[in-house]
Every structure is written in structure tokens, then in C-alpha cells.
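User: Show me an example of a complex going from sequences to C-alpha cells.

Assistant: Sure. Here are the input components:
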Amino acid sequence: MYIYKWLSLVQVWVFHHFLGMGSKDVWEGYGENHYPRAILFLPLSGLGTVDNYRHHLDALDLTRVVMAPYGEHRKTRQFERVSLYSGWLRFGDRMVRYLPERVFRRFEWVQTILRHPVKSSPIDVNLAEITNRFRRALDYALTPQQLGETVVHYVETVNGYID
Amino acid sequence: MHDKETIPIMAAQWWQNRLHGTGLGWLQDTSYSLIDHGLICAFVERWHEETSSFHLLFGEMKDTLDDVACLLHLPIDGMLLSHGSISRDETVELMERYLGSSTGDALKEVEKTKGAHCRFSYLERIFKEHLKEQRDLETEYGVTQEVQRLRDQAVRIYLLYLVGITIFTDKSQWAVDVVYLRYFRDLDLVTGYSWGAAALAHLYKELNNAARWNCSQVAGYLTLLQV
């Protein structure tokens, strides 16, 4: 049996990226210079049924999505290029894919058409190799050529991304 | 961990400096105890393991290292946590050496948890003992080497507890894997690890697991946690 408590991070993340989903109550004592963003929203409001949330997601368009919510927060926490590392991460003896190119708009670039995940991160690694690669994470980060054009409205995609 | 005896001690400057020097101090304030099952389920249903992302109508979305850095203020640049499971002998050794546990206590934890874990209730007990002991020694002799040693151990006890109830919650709800002590050996080096990448990889792993169940099962486990 597995335990899902850490999934509460998803909840905090949703509050920041999806308007109208979950908590809208903010803590009045919050100061952008002092605290991590997770403290901003109070968790107690906004409990809904799974059906409500399913309908919301089914009807969702990009006007209700905040791709880059941390503008004001950048003074406290600058963007670090390691976020653009692309490849494998590990936790204990499990490997997971980390592919920022799939959410380019989050990083202010136009979304490009995605490659097959096995092409982006072939299963040619073992756990020790993942540790080695992350040690040189910037060598494995997306390059300016891969990044392409910057967005203006955070909604842009190349032609044919989703028809 | 926080009660009327420990809170005044934890307000001290030495505690604040040492705890926040590790980059993990904010974890005590950034974990939600109330989980919105419906919200989590609706997202879990759209999670895909092959891409580590939620598939939505307008494209994909995922938690990134940048999210973890901004939301939790965890360090993201640094070495990956790289461990497998450890032996009972190493568990006992780590506890003796870095938490100041007696051999008897350490062996008891290993036996009670049937592996390389120790119980949160044990950590709570020795945390209080350490804080009080260092306070009493300091009152009598000042900040001696012994006081420093007890303080470092207290910080490690707290960190192990903290990661155990937040970013590294696992299938044992009442105990934490002692292997994380390896990264707390030198408190000045804790911030050199990418705790953000570990937290994110663990999240992806949990989402991969959750996506295999249906919603009522996921909700069941979440409810279990809130007891």
C-alpha cells in the first residue's frame, strides 16, 4: 500500500496555476520577500467534489491558466537554469522523467511539437549515471536553439501542436 | 516536536540559524495537512507516467524544479540524493553517531520498524531530551563543545522528522527511513544537495503510483493519513 500525503504539493501547485480551482483565500500576513509561495494560500477553503473538478478541467482553456505565476516572487527566488535540465531524475532506486520541453510556455517560450518521450530521454541510463548527469545538469539543460521563440501571452504554440 | 518546553528553545537564534542554514527549514510551514481529495483525484486521472505530466485539453502541465524552488524555497541546484536501502548495521551506526542514540535504542527502532527506519515517536522523545540537556549544560557551563554537539544532533533529529512527514512521506506512516541521515552528517553541506529534485522525483513517483488506482482508492489512502 502506498501513501499519497506528499501529493498535497499538487494542491499547492494547482492554487497557483489554475484560476478558480481550490483555495482563493490568501494569508494576510504573507510577504513576498519573506516566505515561500506555498504559504500564500490558505488551505481550508475550496473543498469540492471530484466531479466538479473534472468538469472544470474539461472546460478549461488557457485564459484560466497562469503559466508564470512567480513574477513578483523573482526578487526573492531568481530563476535557476537547472530548472531546464532535461532527462532523468531519481528517487531512491526509482527513475522518473523530467522533461521541461513539454511545458515550454511555463518558461516563457513558444510550445513546440513534442518528441516521443523515449526519444527525449532514452532509457540508456542507470541510477549512478543519473546522479552523474545531474552533477553536470547545465550540460544537459535545454539549449537556446531548442528553446526557440519567446512568448508574449503565454498561450503560443507552433502550428500543429494541438489542432 | 513543538510544545511548551521546546518552543522557547527553538526561538533561540542558534536554532533558527542552524535550521535555516540547511535550506530545509521552510518545510515546517509549507505542508498542507488538509488535502482536497477531489482536486487531487481530478489531476491524478490526467497524469501520464511516460511524460511525467498532466495531459489537459490545451496541452501538458507539470510541476517543475522552478515550482518547487518558488513554492517551497528548497535548494534545487546541487547533487542528487543517491542512495539505495541501507543495512540494519548501518542504520544503527548512523543513529548512534549522528543522533546520539544509545545502541540499545537504535537496535530497538530497527527491530520495531523491521528495517532501516526509526519511529517519529522516538525522534520526538530524544528531540526533547537533547534540547533540554543542551539548555541545562549551557546554563551551567556556557556553550561548550558538548553543547554544540547536542545542538547539531537536535537539528539532525528535527530534519529527519521534518523530511519524513513532508517530502519523503512513504508507506510507513509512523516511521522514517534513517538513510537520509547520510545527507545531514555535516550540517553546513545539507544545502549542497538538490532537495528540490528529490522532492519532485518523489512526487512524480507517487503520482505514477496513484494513477494506477481509481479515485475512491486514492481518497481512501488520503483519508487514512488525516486521522
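The lines above are the inputs; the final block is the predicted structure for all two components together. The radius of gyration of chain B is 19 Å.
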